[in-house]
Amino acid sequence: MQRVLIFGLGNLYKEKETYIQTHYEIAGYLDNKAAQIRKDSQDIWKNDPERIVCTPREAEEILEQDMQIILLSYQFPAMWKQLYELGIDQDRIVFGVALPPFHQDEEELFPSGQLEAAGAEIIYRSAAGKTYPVQSYEQLREIAKEVRRERVRKENPLIDMIAGMPCEPLSRLFGTDRGTAVDRYYIERFLEQNKDLIYGSCMEIAEDTYTMRYGGEHVDKAYILHVEGIGQNAIKGDLATGEGIFEDRYDCAIITQTLMFIFDIQNAAKNIYRMLKKGGTALITVSGISQVSRYDADRWGSCYGFHVDAMRKLFVPLFGEENVEISSHGNVKTAAALLYGLCCEDLQEEDFAGDDDDYPVIISAVLKKK
Length: 370
Prior knowledge:
The chain is α/β, with parallel strands linked by helices. The protein is built from 13 helices and 15 strands. It has a 7-stranded mixed beta sheet with strand order 11-10-9-12-13-15-14, sandwiched between helices. β6 (114-118) and β7 form a beta hairpin. Residues 43-49 have low confidence and may be disordered.
């Protein structure tokens, strides 16, 4: 087993200790404060008189034939320079950072590439033969990122495709100039899944399209809540101020893509609770990842983009935990498509099959008043 001297007893040593003790015979340690260590550790090592603790300057005197020095500190470039200036043969020096186990960055660099000595300098040589000067561990981590970028770019043509895309979207109308907006797919899927809750006396914001499509013959009365009172069966009302909001009035309230344009959402949430009959339900959707709806922003102001946690904290205190069901809809592909102005017809059905909570196109809420 290879006999070695360990230069460094800090965090890197602790991380590599098991591997070192399994694969090497530790003959001793180097430290610039060797005298103090010998004094402080004499009780610990009194039964191990062969244990060596010396300064790097003393290393040349105790290095046996074929013995190596392992640099086990994230400050290895400074250690290397010190040993080089002391005339230690560079072939005797091992860079401990290149020994397993590896962190993510180290895993990217080793063992496919290697650290090498070049006189007083250290270089990293990649598997492709490219060399990088290394003056610090932080710089080595940056090299790892560059190597990773090159590898991932080679493996994924998508990167060059995205990098070559224009900075302007294909459409600023959510793709509605060519088809159905991507977020509408999720909104309508959500309402389809909950259509059994759309019945009796129903209220919808600005129009009654979804009320009639998904409630149909189960709807006794369909009302429209509009801030200006526009539309047949329209009630002039405001969710934020409570104007036109009647208590215990509706079996179902359909409020899609509305709360983003109401600054006082706390009061709006209270009024949503107030308007529902006991046993009634509010079906709500809001934007997660989305462009700004310029049409609405210019009229009402665009105030919020939502997350699941915000919706839960907004409605649970009013309705109770057991009566609030919050869901995220969308994934990175459909979110990107929405932002770029693609429409549903540009995508495949399977693109909508999986929802990823980290990429919410919309967030839905089923709120039941008990």
